[in-house]
NYN domain-containing protein (Asticcacaulis endophyticus), 250 residues
Amino acid sequence: MSNHNKNRRLDKSLETEKGWSLPFFRKRAAIYYDGFNLYHAVDAYKRPYLKWLDLKALGRALAPADEVVKRVVWCSAFRPQSKTKMKRHDDYMQALKARGVVARMGHFVSALDGCNSCGHTWHLSIEKQGDVNLALSIAADAEDNLFDVCYLVTADGDHAATARYLKERFPKKKLVLVSPPGRFPNKHILLYADAHIEIEREHLEASLLPQAVRHKKKLLVPPKVIERPEAYDPPELREKGHLKMIVNNG
């Protein structure tokens, strides 16, 4: 048998029926989400159901077949001003944790800003720790050699320093810049990225969390069921609910 035929047989034996390489021959991928950067991009679609997003499934949709997603990190922050939004945000965090996503949470602070010309003042809510949490997560995971390929999901140029550190300190690790949907890739991060891809709406539609997610925190405690907020129901369910309400009111 020729070497060419032997190699073809070997390549074929290393693939599953779906064409995926066996896990121990695949590169390890880690996905790092700039939470609010992604949120605002998704929010621009004005389709709230897309916010009930399974970030692990999305990462798998972005990674090619020769990579296996080993780690997913989501960096966000709680905004305590609205109890309803706070509850929805916490439920989403718990649902992501149930899917194996690592959540690194920061917080918001209130600051006073104003106009020097007219003297008008207003309060601003400023996110704290989000960028630092993302940078430290990538740096620590690279030091611990947890990935071969790093997917950085952001359009924020503040993360160019993180990208530079990763490529200077670990030049053999691949950095992929992932633009949130509808956002241009940041030119400063592109200087250090080995590749660039963009999240499309089709990726979001195919990566939604189910209506209910079970989150088991402790061994002997029954799992908590996190239900999708009504505001995030898909259009078909919202239409059915609207029709049912009309019939009941009739």
Notes: The mean pLDDT is 82. The CA atoms of residues 62 and 199 lie 8 Å apart.
